[in-house]
Amino acid sequence: MSDHELSDVVSSVESGGQVKITQRLYRTTDDRIVREGHPDAAFLYVTPGTYIPTCEAQRYGLLPATDAAVPGKARRKPASSRGG
Q1: Can you tell me the distance from the alpha carbon of 79 to that of 46, in angstroms, rounded to the nearest whole number?
Q2: Which among 62, 68, 50 is positioned nearest to 2, based on CA atoms?
Q3: What integer pLDDT is reported at residue 17 of this predicted model?
Q4: For residue 2, what pLDDT is reported?
Q5: Which of 22, 28, 33, 79 could be stapled to 60 by a disulfide with Cβ–Cβ 3.0 to 4.6 Å?
Q6: Nearest CA-CA partner of 3 in 66, 68, 64, 70
Q7: 24: phi > 0 → left, psi -120 to 50 → alpha, else beta; which?
Q8: What is the pLDDT of residues 16-65, one digit of tens each?
């Protein structure tokens, strides 16, 4: 199952950088996330209503590309090199 097929299993990014899972998900023996009923499902990962960190949702491809940013956290600017 490709990543884009799982993007509907989370609600939008919540404050605090977490997402709410909307469906039962399972891990496979090779550390992928699949829906309930998938033939590769081996271990229960989360149940509906569970909150997981945004970084974990990104790791497993559970977020649509537009929700990848965490609200309330500004990106750090790279340190500029100062010649001297």
Answers
A1: 39
A2: 62
A3: 86
A4: 45
A5: 33
A6: 64
A7: beta
A8: 789 899 999 999 999 999 999 999 999 999 999 999 999 998 898 888 76
CA-based nearest residue to 28, from 62, 68, 60: 60
83: number of Cβ within 10 Å: 3
Q: What is the pTM of this model?
A: 0.67
Q: How many residues does the chain have?
A: 84
Residue among 5, 21, 28, 24 nearest 56 (CA)? 21
The identity of residue 83, as a single letter, is G
Amino acid (one-letter) located at 67? D
What DSSP element (H or E) covers 55? helix 54-59
Spatial distance between the Cα atoms of 84 and 81, rounded to a whole number of angstroms: 9
